[in-house]
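Dear colleague,

Thank you for sharing your sequence with our group. We've completed the structure prediction you requested, and as agreed, I am returning the results in plain text so they can be pasted directly into your records. Please verify that the sequence below matches your submission; if there's any discrepancy, let me know and we will rerun it promptly.
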Amino acid sequence: MNASMTITENPHAALHSRHKAVMPQWLATYYREPIEITHGEGRHVWDAEGRQYLDFFGGILTTMTAHALPEVTAAIREQAGKILHSSTLYLSSQAVDLAERIARLSGIPDARVFFTTSGTEANDTALLLATTYRKSNQILALRNSYHGRSFSAIGITGNTSWSPTSLSPLQTLYVHGGVRSRGPYAHLSDAEFTAACVADLEDILGQANGQVAALIAEPIQGVGGFTSGPDGLLAAFKQVLDRHGILWITDEVQTGWGRTGEHFWGWQAHEGSGPPDVLTFAKGVGNGLSMGGVVARAEVMNCLTANSISTFGGSPITTAGALANLQYLLDHDLQGNARRVGGLLKSRLEAISAGLPVVREVRGRGLMLGIELTSPAAATLVLEAAREGGLLIGKGGRSGDALRIAPPLSLTVAEAEEGASILEAALKQAHSELGDGPA
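Please find the predicted structure tokens below.
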């Protein structure tokens, strides 16, 4: 080769190099060779090299209905031709329309809605409301929880792999109940498990030196690996909370909008003691637009006395897209589809996993399914093998040992079967590579 000639670097590798040179070192990417997703349609996406994937993660449970959904795209295009931004200092018919719908759907009486740009910001706002209303910075949270990346949200995150600092403006008290199959109560029946967790909550409150503001809980823990306690656990907690005047914040950033199939909100699996005081949402409602928010009883939402606005929360463009997305979800009963197709997919995954020692547990409901494996190494192997097979999934759990499966809610039976087949091959490959012998 002529000495003056240079080898042209692969554009994909060049982008990865540029990413590492300018982005934070702690900004994680999936895969040994990260991919760039350039476009999508329905339940499929394509990378920069033209390879097609079946998407079973939806940009971290955010593409709720479908990629490039025509109804949402049209609404965004129409609004973009009018005005993109105005702020909450001005009235917005789209924001009011969306707030009215969400208030009705929330199940919270006399509800008020505040829009944010993310789930993290929504949870920050919920913490601000609760601590102001109760005049206390003490917060109850579940072990193994995750509520966002901000300083205050990290302060209530029980999943230590996502908590880079112990510093916090809040005093957080962690209680049992987020993980059914691990820990000191795993051997108990559901009723005994609930009773033990309630006793633990009572004990924590007995030790708290002050007035606790709120309990924040994900009905199904997302980053924690799609774990949860038994149905009714949070209702049992609420009976205790109500005696003390403590607020219940339900973090529905990942469980909302019918993803669990059986319920529109995750809290409805625990509704025996009534609705939560505060509900936070994000991700799926915007279908990829930067949209989140808080729903709260009026007396809680209105407790702030200082001035407050939002520059970007509930912008004309995000609320227009979210309205179209929510309408599509309701018109096409995607909650029902999540229940039906998710049930079939879970049964298929359980059958696949039955003969594979690398799988510890299949769990979840609707189209929010988790597969806990025997090690983080196993989860990484399956993640890579699934991508090579044309399937994108997620990963989570306290130590990164769980696979997270959360496709758009319009998933078809054929696509569920296709994804399950790819996962089966990936699991068998991991089983073989880890030295457990042939599947």
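Summary note from our side: The longest helix spans residues 413-433.

Kind regards,
the structure core
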